[in-house]
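Chain X:
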Amino acid sequence: MKPCKACGGLNKYANGVCKDCHTKAKNKYYQACKEKDPEYLKKHHLKYGKKQRDYYLRKTYGITSEEYNVLFDKQKGRCAICDRPQSELKHSLAVDHNHTTGELRGLLCSSCNTAIGSLRESTELFASALIYLNKW
């Protein structure tokens, strides 16, 4: 491992600097751009946001934006568990998948997705949680 070009630490990152130094430089750059043009980040997101989302969906889940949209339409824009509509959420619906097989299950709000992850996708833990909730 080579030392970081900026701080000398041994936590090398892809471009020769560690993750912390990379983040600081990126934030400094965005702040300078924002000072020159207050609408910079909004314009940047409009220009590159869809491309970045497409890349993320393809790399992480092996699906395209079109396939995500098909799932979204199939669920009528609602969380597959709690049925809350996308319009009530701060973030877009998350792609839920089996971490062992990679199989896609549906789209969930962040609360439901976090709950499944917190209970380690275990039906036994879900059953135990249900018994506990019914008891109280």
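Chain Y:
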Amino acid sequence: MAHLIPGQLIEQLLDARGWSKRVLALVLDIDESVLSKIIAGKRNVDASLALALGEVFEIEPVEFLQLQQAYDLAKARLVTKPDPRRALRARIFGGLPVADMIRRGWLDVEDGKDVTRVEVALAKFFGTESVDEITTPAHAAKKTDVGKGPTLVQTAWLTRVRTIAEEMLVPRFSVNAAREALSSLKRLLSAAEEARHAPRILAEAGIRFVLVESLPGTKIDGVCTWLDDSPVIALSLRHDRIDNFWFVLRHEIEHSICGHGKTESVVDIELDRPDADASPEEQVANAAAAEFCVSQTSLRAFIARKSPYFAERDIIGFAKTHQIHPGLVAGQLQYQTKRYDRFRTHQVKIRSIVAPSATVDGWGDVAPVGL
């Protein structure tokens, strides 16, 4: 019956019973002219009529509705031209938080409903001739994300990072300078306020450092990418905590020292969660970051002595002995014990300390580039 239109099915059923249209109209208590239009396909079979026809002919009402739906779809195909841009708009507007990008000044658009202007602004943002050419760049991510490829929203965040970094001037980068910078940064770990010096130290080492607020759904903690021979490190400060700041920053510095990210930007996602399948590059960076924050040998010995109870005085004493902020000890204890609900007292906020001396985009500030 699927090849029929509703009216043809009704005619077949009338013939089978030897009924005229007038008889059926009387049975249904509708005007015969209305029935004629339905049989001719000039009037649709709605749900109420389908129920009535089902009672009269002892057929499931849904069959009439399915025929009507198929008939309507076939008619629409005859008059509706395919529009490949619908799929494109679905990918762009479904994959990007356009409203957030406008609000943050990334797109020079006043009305987010003006599709044409939004498309022009997006093409300019991504550096393409049109939105049709917007693609996701090559990048390496945590292994849990490999195979899926970067999402469009992650690409947008990375694009913003690179656009900001292109405006920054730093000395020539060298691995030796980066290692010297690490020694200077290590001396900042004892007090949260000392983190304000980090942007200057990185810049002097030839590293372009930016803070860019994350976009919804990116889950990005940081990135290491390169512009020519200069590494770019960006943090999202998705978790505004001292331990997360130093761990992610040291993680990205290790990528820079190792030359990771030159051919494919290294986008690091959810670094605060263990990843058994992390790539060798990520394992190296994770190990360097953990050791930078807290001596892992000393931490393991501390855990062995104090587990399962970690008193506040013990955490503070351990931190003082190693000349680091207690928040770094707390962060590593969370990671090692998988108890993320504990040791939060010392995990102080860091963004307000670092941001005044850094290049910042987000949290109400707009970097004056890319417009």
